[in-house]
Amino acid sequence: MKRQRALALYLNVALILATSLLGLTGNYLTNLSEPPTYLRFLQSVAIPAFVAIVVLLVIGQIVLHVVTNPKAKRSDWDPQRPPYPGLEPYREEDSAVFFGRDQQVSDIVRRMLAASADPRERLLVVVGASGSGKSSLVQAGVVPMLKTRRWITLPMVNPGSAPVGNLANAIAESLPEPVATPVIVRAMRQNPARAANYVAEIRRGLGRRFGHVLLVIDQLEELFTLAGESDRQLFLEVVERLLHADSRLSVIASMRIEYLTQFLDSDKAALFQNPVAVGAIKTEYLTTIIEEPARIAGMAFEPKVVNRITADVGTTDALPLLAYLLQELFFEVRPGATVSLNAYLGTGGVGGALTRQADQAVTELRGEGGIAPILTTLLRFVSLDSGEATRRPVRLRELSPEQRRIVAAFVDARLLVSKMQDGEPVVEVAHEALFRLWAPLRQEVETRAEHLRRRSELERWAADWQHSGRSDDYLLTGQRLVLAEQWLAGLEALGQASDVVRALIQQSKRRDIAFLRRVSENIGRYVLANAERFPELSILLSIAAIAEAPVTPLIGRALMSALAFSHLRRVLAGHTDTVRSIAWSPDGRLIATGSRDRSARVWDPDSGRTIAEFTGHDAMVEAIAWAPDSHRVASGARDRTVKLWRVGADELPPTLYGAGDMIRGVAWSPDGGYVAAGAQDHRIHVWRTDTGEQIATLRGHTGDVYGLSWSPEGALLASASHDRTAIVWDLTSGQQQTVLRGHTDFIEGLAWCPEGQRLATASGDQTIRIWDVADGRQLLLIRGHTDFVWDVSWSPDGRSLASASSDRTVRIWDVSDAREIAALRGHEDVVWGVAWSPDGTALASASSDHTARVWSILPRGAERQSFTGHTGGLRAAVWAPDGARVATASDDGSVRVWSVASGAVSTFTGHTGTVWGVAWAPDGQRLGSCSNDGSVQLWHTGSVQPYLRLGEETICEGLVWAPDNTRIATACRDGTASIWNATTGRRLLQLRGHTDWVVRLAWSPSGRMIATTSDDRTARVWDSSTGEELAVLRGHHNWVDGVAWSPDEQSVVTCSADWTCRIWEPRTGRHVRTLEGHEGRVRAVAWSPTGDQIATGSYDRTVRVWSAQDDAEPQVVGVHVDRVTSVAWSTDGRTLLTASLDKSARLWPVQPDLDDLRSRARLRVFRELSADERQSHLLPMPDDSSAQH
What we know:
single chain, Arc Repressor Mutant, subunit A, 6 domains, five-stranded parallel sheet, 26 helices
C-alpha cells in the first residue's frame, strides 16, 4: 500500500512537470519569428511532441486512477467453506462471493466520497424490504470498497435493546488504549458530543489524524422494535453530534423500509431525508448470483437447474431464501460436484428448503408435548411491532433446559444463529422469512399476536428502566402497572416472560405498594377530617383505597367514620329536571315528587323504584301533597291547575280550576275533604275534593303564596308568602287569626308542630323561626344555613326540625336549643323540599340536581347494633352479667335498660341531672347510678323507683359494684372515693389521698383491691378492706380518666386526657408500657376477659383494641359521630359496648369484617369517583381493560 501511494505521488509530479514544460516550450516557440538554428529542430517536431505528451498525460491519469481506485480484491476462497451465507446476510469476509449489486455498490461509494461537510449528506440510510439484501449490500459491497480507499471502519453496530451500549462497544474495540464500555456509555449519557473525542482517539492510535471514519449501523429499525424511548433518543443524539463535530466521519445505516416513516416523524427527521432504496434483485442478475460463488468454490450447476431456480424465485425475501437453498445444495453435493435438477427438486425448492429443514428439526425434537412447546419456544424469538413479525435476540441464560434443547436443534438446522453479545451468548433467527414461510410458526404468531404485542410493550418499558440504571423514575405505576401484571401473567403461562420484565414488575410493585400505602394513608386522613362534610365522597374514597391500595388501620377507621356520618339511604333518579317538591305518604310506604319536567312521580323509598308517573300538567309542577288515605296525591302546577291523582289508577285525574295564576303551594286537609292551593295571584284557593267546587278564596298576602300547612286538627290553615309574612287563617270565618312577622326576606316553607301549638317557617333570610301560633310570638331563631332556606319539616315527635336550603344541605335541628344535630350533604344543587317519614327514622329531600334522596336519621356505621332513644349524650353503658341486657346513663337525666335481643327498653327517671355512671350488681338484679344532682341511687331492675340513696354530699362521677355483690364504690368530686354497704347504705371506708376530683374506679377481680383515677394526674391502688394506699401511679401528663384491671390482677391500665393509656404493676406502681395512637382524650378503658387485649374509647370518636402483650398496632373497631365516653367487653370477649355523646350506645364486633363494611358502604353511594376526584387523591385512573388490585 505504501508503494502504491509513492507511485501515485511520483506520477502526479511527473505529469505536472511535463505539462508545465510543454506549455512553456509551446508558448516560446510559437512567439519566435526567426528561431535559432538549434531550435529549428524542436520547432519542426513541436506538434508531434505535443500530441505525444497529451497522450502520455491521458495514459498517466488512467494509471493514476487505477492505482488510487483499486477494486475490492476477491480473496482466495476455502473450497470447504460454503459460498452462500444461508439465511444470514453476506458479511465483509464474504465479499469474494458477493455478486449482483456492483452498480449499486459503486453508486453508494461515489455518493459517500462526494459527500460535503453537511451532516445530512454524510448519513446514508439504505432502506429495503426484509430479504432485499440491504445488509449484504453494505457489509459485503460498500464496506470493502471504502476500505480500499483507506477509510477507517468501526465494528458494525446492531442497536438491539441497548443501542447506546452497543455503540460504546464498537468504539471501545477500536480505541488504542482499553476503556471500559460502561465508562463510554456514562460519558455519552452525560454529554453525547463526547463520542467525537473517542473517534479522534481512534484516529490518533492509527496514526491517521485526517483519516475518514465509517460507522456502519445494521438493522436501525431495532431502535423502535427493541430499544426503549430514552435509549433511542440518546443514540440518535450521539450520531447527530458525531456528524456535526467530525466532518471526516460518515455513517451508513440499513433498515427495513416500513420503519422509515417513524424516523421521519421523529425530531431527527432531517438526517433521514435522502435514503437509498434497495429493491428486489432483478432476474438477469440471479444467474450471476447463483453461478459465480459456485465457480469460486469449485462447484457447478446443470443449465436447467439455474433456469429452474430463477423461475422459482419470486418473493421480496428471495435472496435469503435463495442463499439458504444454495447453501443446502452445497452441503449436499460438496465441492467439485455439479448440482443436478433432481438434487435441486429434492430440497423442496426455494421455499420448501426452509420448511423442510424446520419440519425435520421438529421431527427430531418432538416428544410427549408435540409441537406446542417447540412453537412456544420459538415465539421467544419473535417481536411483533408495527403489525409485522421481526427478529428478537434472546439471551441463552433466560431459556430453560428444555428450551435450550429446542434451540440447539434449530441452530444445528441453521434456522437460528448463536452469537456473543455483551459477553454472553445470544440466539436469534437466521432470517425473518422463517416467521412467514413456515406455516406452524406463522399460525402461532397470528394466534398469539396480542401476547407478542404486549410482550414488546413490556420489554420497551423494561429496556427504558434497565438503561436508566434501574432508576425509580422509570418504574411502572398506576394503570400501567396493573396492565403489566396482567400481561406478565399471560406471558408466564406461555413461557414468554424475560428476567428483566419480571424484575421491573416486581420492583414496581414494591414501590407501588409503598406509594399506594401513602395514598391510602392520605385518603384516610382526608376522610377522617372531612367525613362529616363530605360523607359520599369519603365513602367512595375509602372504598377505592381499600380496593386499590394496601389496607391500613387508618383506612379501615376512615371507612367506619364515613359510614357513621353517611345518612344517605337511597337516590330517587328519574326526573329530567329540577325536583321542586316532595312529600311522604301518611302510611310511610311511598314518596311523591313534583318536577320542572311537568310530571309528578310516586316512589318506593326502600327500593328507589318509580311506582307511578303522572303526566298531564302543561307546566312545571311546583307543589305536591298526599291525602290522608295515602292513595291520592294533589299536584299544583304553573299551568294554574291542581290535579288529584289516584295511585294505581289509570283514569284521568280530577282537575281543580279557579286559581287566577300559577299554583305555588298545595296542601290536603287532615280529613281529606279539602285541598288548599297558594298562587302567584297572592291568594289562597280552597276546593272540596269530592265535587271540585271552590269554596273559599283567602286574601291578605301581598306576594306569591308558596307554603301551605293545615293544623293537625284541621281548623286552621297557615300560609307563607314572598311578602315576608306567614298568616294563620281561621277556616270557619275565613279571617286571619295571626300574622307572623320577623323574617327579612321571602318565606316559602312552613310546617305545623305535631302538637298544633307551634309553627315553623323557612326564609330567604337564611333562618328558620318557630312561632307561638296563639299570639304570634317568636319562640326560637335557628341559624346555620349559608343560603336561602326553602322548606322545613317537623319530626313526628316534635323534638326536631329538618330544613332544605340553597347551600345544598338538609339540616336537622334540636328545637329545644336551636342546636344543629346533623347536616346531610350529597345533593349537587339547591335543595328545595324536605319531608320527614311518619315513623321519624328518615327524611326525603328534593333538589335541582334532578334527584330526590332518602336519608336515615341515625345511620348505621360499622356497629352490629345501636341503642338510641336518649335525648342527651350518653356518659356510660354497661353489660348486665347475663350479657342479655345493657344499661345506659345519659345527660337527659335517665337510666335505661335495653334488651340486646329485642331492643325493648325500660327507663329509670329518678335523677334530675346528668347521670354520670351506672353499674350492675353481680347478681344482675340491681343497678347503681350517680348523677350531677349529687345523688347515688340503687335500683331493683323490676322497679322504676330506687330502693336506696347513698349519703354523698358531693357529685359522684363513677361507681362500680364489688365482685362480692355486697359493696359498691363511688368516685366523687371532693377528691375522695367511698366504699358502701350495698344493702344498708352505710359507708364502710372513705379513701383519701387524691388532690382533685376522683372520676373513675375499678375493683380488682378478687375484690381485695380497688384502683381510682383523678384529675390530679394520678391513679392510686388501695386495699379495699383497710383503705390503705398501696401504690401511686404517676406518669400521665393530664387528667386520668379511666382504669381497668387485668384478669390475673397483675396489671392495671389507665387512660388519660394526655391521649395515652399506660400499663402498670399495681403493687409497685412501676410503669410497664404506654399505649399511644389516639388523637384525643382517652375517656374509657377496659381489659378483655381473656387478658390479651385492651379496649379504649376516645374523644377522637374511635374505639380501639390493643394488644396487652406487645406494641402491635391497635385496630380501630368502631367510630362514633361524637366523643366516646365508655367501653365494656362482653363476657365472651367478642363484642364491645360503647357509649357516646352522639346519644347512642353501640355494639361492635371486636374483629370487624372489612368486606362486610365495604358491601354496606357500596349501598350508601350511587355514583363512582370522577376522574378529577381520583386524580386529586392520586388514585390510578380506571380502565375497562383492566381489573383493580
